[in-house]
Design brief:
Oligomer: single chain
Number of helices: 10
Largest sheet: 4 strands, antiparallel
Radius of gyration: 38 Å
Helix content: 55-70%
Distance between the termini: 39 Å
Order of helices and strands: HHHHEEHHHHEEHH
Mean pLDDT: 82
Shape: elongated
Number of strands: 4
CATH class: Mainly Alpha
CATH superfamily: Outer membrane efflux proteins (OEP)
Structural class: alpha+beta
Strand content: 5-15%
Strand order of the largest sheet: 1-2-3-4
Number of domains: 1
């Protein structure tokens, strides 16, 4: 309900002037309650953003839609069909301390809503006092009183309602931040887990390489003992073997760091936590041709940014309401007497009731500056929201492009590995036949090892991009998770 400011002020003033009885005071309170429906400041609408109809890198059929960030994302990691990962994700959901921090922040935001709502209710209190006073030459005067007090400030300009709306938006922001923290922790765990498994795969490759280089060294030593090759071949074989052994040890150090990172994520001490080694054999799950929901439906960080804008908008109303007068209706009743024995008798009763209208006439522009600051803060949150949306679409496009390109690269790299293995086999046979020197074998071995290591790296990158796409979409694309 909108009432002109001048008219509403005149009505209140006339009511206050004539409020010389309890009935008049009640009328003033009722009038203030009606006028309390007026709320100054702009009403909030979601900031407009440019949303593309489809993703450039997505398969045909993908779409974007409207926010539904409260939907349960479920166990999105089940798309990888890894029992160890699922067990770790369960531990994370129960014990991750970052999630616990955001959960506590959400409880605090929920309590602040109740704190703001309390301003709607009148305040009641009791007061009991006793005093003795004496002038320089006069008698001692005693005074005893017992009273009940009540006061109420109507939400005349919507300051309380705007504050409650801001706190409610803050609660929703905290809920979205909690969901985002949970999703980020889950995604970080999945990414760290797959990196750990990639190091396990590298360890297997390095161990197999060490075994192969040991056989090459034995062959070279045998041929040297027979006087077929020079000692330089033995030294080169030893150097290559020792380099592979050093790489295998270094790989173990890197794996231990990732294992310790997982321990922190699941809320366990690194000293007592371990993940049994198992090479990375997983491949990214196929991206569906159609998707039941889209990025704006599932990203909690977008929801958090949007609701922060809503809270900032309500603060404009709170700052604007401070420009107008405030009305307080108060009442006091009780007993007052100079003799405590007569305190609770009828002649000692007293009561007062009446309104109080207060306005700040000169403040040096303080409140208008606060209103302008609130508007600037709102504009800042709108820009943050739009930037979050743009970054979200970039994340999806980045990971879709990465998955598509890495899948093509994996096919070509697998062919390179097979070619390198064939070349190494040929060089070994030629070396045994004495038609080539050991340098040729060394080059072939290095080429084969590098090709297999590159293939392992691509596999790790593909899993990281798959997990990145799941996170960018706000928790997967499974229809059952919507």
């Amino acid at each position: 309900m909108k009432i002109p400011t001048v008219l509403s002020s005149k009505l209140l003033w006339r009511a206050c002037v004539r409020a010389d009885s309890p009935l008049a005071a009640l009328i003033v309170g009722a009038l203030a309650a009606v006028l309390g429906a007026c709320a100054v400041g702009p009403d909030y609408t979601r900031p407009a953003t440019d949303v593309p109809a489809i993703f450039k890198e997505a398969p045909e059929g993908w779409k974007v839609a409207q926010p539904a960030d409260q939907s349960d994302r479920g166990a999105w990691w089940s798309i990888y069909d890894d029992a160890q990962l699922s067990a770790l994700e369960y531990e994370l959901n129960q014990s991750n301390q970052t999630i616990a921090q955001y959960a506590a922040a959400y409880r605090q935001a929920r309590a602040l809503v109740g704190e703001a709502s309390a301003a709607y209710s009148p305040n009641f209190g009791v007061n009991a006092s006793g005093s003795r006073a004496q002038t320089f030459s006069g008698p001692i005067r005693k005074s005893y009183s017992l009273s009940l007090n009540a006061s109420w400030e109507p939400d005349f300009w919507g300051s309380v309602s705007r504050t409650i709306a801001a706190q409610q938006a803050g609660q929703q922001t905290a809920a979205a931040d909690l969901a985002n923290a949970r999703l980020s922790a889950q995604a970080t765990l999945a990414q760290t887990y797959f990196q750990l498994r990639a190091f396990d795969a590298s360890q297997t490759l390095l161990d197999n390489t060490v075994v192969a280089f040991q056989r090459s060294l034995q062959l070279t030593q045998s041929r040297y003992a027979q006087g077929i090759v020079a000692r330089s071949d033995v030294i080169q074989a030893q150097t290559q073997l020792q380099s592979a052994q050093a790489a295998a040890i270094d790989n173990g150090v890197a794996r231990a760091l990732f294992e310790h990172a997982i321990a922190v994520l699941v809320g366990q001490p690194a000293s007592t936590f371990s993940v049994p080694p198992s090479p990375l054999n997983a491949t990214p799950p196929a991206v569906p041709a159609e998707m039941p929901s889209a990025i704006l439906e599932r990203r909690p960080d977008i929801a958090s940014a949007e609701r922060s804008a809503g809270a900032a908008n309500e603060q404009i109303g709170v700052a604007t309401a401070a420009l107008f007068p405030t009305l307080t209706v108060s009442a006091t009743g009780g007993f007052q007497s100079s003799l405590i024995s007569k305190l609770l008798r009828a002649p000692s009763r007293f009561w007062t009731v009446g309104p109080n209208l207060a306005a700040n006439l000169v403040d040096g522009g303080l409140r208008r500056a606060q209103t302008e600051a609130a508007r600037a803060a709102y504009d800042q949150t709108v820009a943050t929201y739009r930037l979050t949306v743009l970054a979200a679409f970039r994340d999806v496009e980045d990971n879709l492009a990465s998955l598509r390109i890495l899948e093509q690269e994996a096919v070509v790299q697998q062919q390179a590995v097979e070619s390198a293995r064939q070349a190494l086999a040929i060089m070994n046979n030629q070396y045994k036949a004495g038609t080539v020197g050991y340098v040729n074998v060394l080059v072939a071995q290095t080429t084969a090892f590098t090709a297999e290591q590159k293939l392992s790296t691509i596999a790790k990158q593909r899993m990281a991009s798959s997990e990145g796409l799941v996170k960018a979409l706000g928790g997967g694309w499974n229809a059952n998770a919507d």
